[in-house]
Protein: ABC transporter domain-containing protein
Amino acid sequence: MLIVNDISKKVKDHDILKKTSFNLNKGVVGLLGPNGAGKTTLLRILSTYFEPTTGTISLGNLNWDKNKEEIRKHIGYMPQHIGLFPHLKIIEYLQYIGILRGMALEQIKELALKTLIEVNLEDKANIKIKNLSGGMKQRVGIAQAIMHNPQLLIVDEPTAGLDPEERIRFRNLLKRIAQERIVLFSTHITEDIVMTCDEVLLMNKGTVMKYSHVQDVVSIANQLVWTVTVDSTAYNSMLMKKEFFISNIMDEPSSNQITLRIIHNEQPHPLAVQVHPTLEEGYMVWLQKN
Structure:
């Protein structure tokens, strides 16, 4: 279990990360928040790149305020922009990473090949990285992060820029990897959270709040989401009022009708009916409150 107790990060007089505490168990935990929320700061503290201003972090018997090199042996980190070496073969790159990590030389190749099997790249071991698709490069990024079998894997925006098929493959890979470890999955894509995560951390303005189930975030918008179908005149009139938040617009050109999903605490139109919210809508309501 990862135990985070009262950690914060202050730079000069600015609270980048406000005091926060949470526990994480094995499985995929989503980290969701807007730009500037403090997500990258939190990830860098957990990966030992930043020191927290206050608080403690532990993983089993390991404490972050002790030997950093020992801690790093149990952490895998895949940043949003990972530095791959395009002219190296995949197996060469992983062997190089193994050497940098100080792994036993006689074990590096064996572990690299084993890891390639885990990320479904065993048949691409001798392909140069420059010849890989975006999805395959992301899998190489995961491979370098798990080759030393970490207890905690941190991935930052790993599905950004992937096509839908590659995103699905990558999400399935994370789910499989998370059977044996904690995976903290930072993303802007709410669909990835719904399809992948067991628990969710929401962040905004340096504040972190943990939800034990994705459905708990969805329920934040219960009885606040409405749908209504109107003509273009009524739609334009509703836009002018700016009294509520429109979360989705579906245009029907053939009938001059527009179907809206609206977040509002009162019925926004006489014909509007309440509907079950999505994770995105729960998240938007949470942002408005926090």
About this structure: The radius of gyration is 22 Å.
